[in-house]
């Protein structure tokens, strides 16, 4: 299996069909420098063959404290634009890539760290997780996609509160607001279980959820219904879907429920 060339700030572990990708700058609370962001773009642009789901984790007590401020050098407006668009491009590779991503959130999920987490498809928060967008207190504005992704999760009014006042949400407040899907004491084990369940899905279903569902949600209803019909026909027409349905009808597959 060919693995992408990654910077030292990213560690990759392959567990059968699940890849575990860890931010590995614990001495910096996993602050995101350019090398790390570009490494994320490289990995999610071409995940190892055979990988069907990814757990995005972090070494140490924090997911990510955001932009590495030591890299906040003097830039003119155009250089600042290019830097922001580089983050957008990298996180877009994650959000609209070919593999579902489950993020494990603990400790600081702040600034650019929250922007990265918001690009994941599922988020599992540990009790230590806390969320903030401190850019407003530093004379800055978000630049890694937060103004698009975070309001979709918690609403514009809550994001405005976080930026205007510097409000910090703890794990429970963040979960109630919509920043996490699950709360778990052992976030990694919970995320790994979810990733393995996702990897067992039909690849075409996972593709539809990652690629079609967001576009349907953004489309006007008429276009959305048409895209849904087209994707439904493609998925149900696959040989794997037909076999899974036969297994269900023959009572060889488990029923929905607890």
Short summary:
The protein has 258 residues and is α/β, with parallel strands linked by helices. It is 47% helix and 14% strand. A six-stranded mixed sheet has the order 1-2-3-4-6-9, with helices on both faces.
Task: Note down, in words, how this protein is organized.
By secondary structure, this protein is α/β, with parallel strands linked by helices. It has 2 domains: 10-199, Alpha-Beta Complex (2-enoyl-CoA Hydratase, Chain A, domain 1); 203-249, Lyase 2-enoyl-coa Hydratase, Chain  A, domain 2. It is built from 10 helices and 9 strands. The strands form 2 sheets. The protein has a 6-stranded mixed beta sheet with strand order 1-2-3-4-6-9, sandwiched between helices. The chain has a 3-stranded mixed beta sheet with strand order 5-7-8.
Features:
258 residues, alpha/beta, 2-enoyl-CoA Hydratase, Chain A, domain 1, three-stranded mixed beta sheet, 10 helices, 14% strand
Detail the topology: elements first, then pairings.
Elements: E1 10-15, E2 18-23, H1 34-45, E3 53-58, H2 77-95, E4 101-105, E5 108-110, H3 112-119, E6 122-125, E7 130-132, H4 146-154, H5 156-165, E8 169-170, H6 171-177, E9 182-183, H7 187-199, H8 203-218, H9 221-236, H10 239-249
Parallel strand pairs: 2-3, 3-4, 4-6, 5-7, 6-9
Antiparallel strand pairs: 1-2, 7-8
Helix pairs in contact: 1-2, 3-4, 4-5, 8-9
């Amino acid at each position: 299996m060919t693995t992408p060339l990654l910077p030292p700030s990213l560690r990759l572990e392959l567990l059968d069909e699940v890849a575990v990708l860890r931010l590995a700058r614990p001495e910096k609370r996993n602050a995101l420098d350019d090398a790390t962001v570009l490494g994320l773009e490289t990995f999610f642009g071409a995940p190892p063959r055979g990988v069907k789901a990814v757990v995005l984790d972090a070494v140490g007590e924090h997911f990510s404290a955001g932009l590495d401020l030591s890299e906040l050098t003097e830039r003119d407006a155009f250089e600042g634009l290019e830097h922001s668009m580089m983050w957008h491009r990298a996180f877009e590779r994650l959000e609209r890539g070919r593999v579902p991503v489950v993020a494990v959130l603990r400790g600081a999920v702040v600034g650019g760290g929250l922007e990265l987490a918001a690009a994941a498809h599922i988020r599992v928060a540990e009790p230590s997780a806390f969320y903030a967008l401190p850019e407003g207190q530093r004379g800055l504005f978000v630049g890694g996609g937060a103004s698009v992704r975070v309001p979709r999760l918690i609403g514009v009014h809550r994001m405005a509160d976080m930026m205007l006042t510097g409000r910090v949400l703890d794990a429970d407040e963040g979960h109630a607001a919509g920043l996490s899907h699950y709360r778990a004491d052992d976030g990694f084990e919970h995320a790994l279980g979810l990733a393995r369940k996702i990897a067992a899905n039909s690849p075409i279903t996972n593709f539809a959820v990652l690629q079609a569902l967001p576009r349907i949600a953004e489309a006007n209803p008429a276009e959305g219904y048409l895209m849904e019909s087209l994707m439904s026909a493609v998925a149900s027409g696959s040989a794997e879907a037909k076999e899974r349905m036969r297994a269900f009808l023959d009572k060889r597959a488990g029923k929905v429920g607890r």
